[in-house]
């Protein structure tokens, strides 16, 4: 049984309760501070309206109920990087929850829809940051991050495997980026996850004793840390030993979880209402407008790409991962289905464009260590132009692939006619003759296919592609070979 507690750092212009700049990543230590976030006596916090609206937007997207009334509370604990000695958070009246969120998980070659209960979403401020100089007998405090707005999302213990928990976090990261409220970068601490884990015998209704795994700061750590803790608890119970309710961390070098401290309960924090901030009435903050402003969410967009455009799960997943890349993909489709030589079928256009973006473009992004298609410097219209040429049979796929993988992509407009001449597809009569010869030259694969081994066709396809120097359409070649052999 796994439940998650996730902190999402909101990228508002200013901090949660003061006017300090909220850009701790690129500032000098303690540069972005003021009397409010330093916790000096006599200061008065004022809630950041944008942070409240963004948290409400996230709550709506996660399927949460929005309450009539919400309030802030003081959560008492004493860390060197918490200057006030308490954190302004929300206890019994959060901004959102309960709710239910759906996400898709690939399982055994198919896609399964999972539902996870969202217990609550609340707003709070972040603490500062401790740094520990190597070899020194002291630590340093940087309070730039103190007061940064955090949306904390708490789920029900609805995950049944580390893979499910990891998948949910990946979906949540996409969601925050689509809402444009957080960069949600785990490596930079914009998205941090803690996990509550317990095990029980199969079929048992009684919950086991849970432990909390703190600060899982990458998707890989989430999966490996959860797997290690499940193994540890299972081993304890099988030996007749008890699981202790505690906070643990994941040690990658040992591949195991380690005890950090006893687990605090809510009463340990001595919550009480924050006297300096009036209660909120979320339903008066333009919920209709916030709902209307929601973009198409990643899970919906992925399903549309599969159902409307016929894309594979992996291609749809790749294209929706970055919202700007998904927008780029759809803009190219719009271009390809209008104008001279337009592609009449949007599904056909989407298939051709997706093939280019998940193939040559993906390779260019990886080699250049970039994330966005628009960063490659290739004129956007080149992709839609090549898609029209491909679908209309004026250029081969191998030709389009080579153009997009070389300097030709940057100069496509001026070199267009020469490139079309160089990469024109093989004529139908020629390809038929080449296929006949390839079947004749490969009698064993042909016989194996007729005996039921469908993969044997690939040897003949390879022979044809070699003979045409890659100018033939591999999919069309495969179809023709299959038709002839049958």
What does this structure look like?
The protein is α+β, with helices and mostly antiparallel strands. It has 15 helices and 13 strands. The strands form 3 sheets. The protein has an 8-stranded mixed β-sheet. A hairpin with an 8-residue loop joins strand 6 and strand 7 (140-142). Helix 8 runs parallel beside helix 10 (397-404), helix 12 (428-441) crosses helix 14 and helix 12 (428-441) crosses helix 15. It is elongated and about 85 Å long. It starts with a strand and ends with a helix. The model has no long low-confidence stretch (mean pLDDT 91).
In short:
The protein is built from 15 helices and 13 strands. The chain is an alpha+beta fold. The protein is elongated and about 85 Å long.
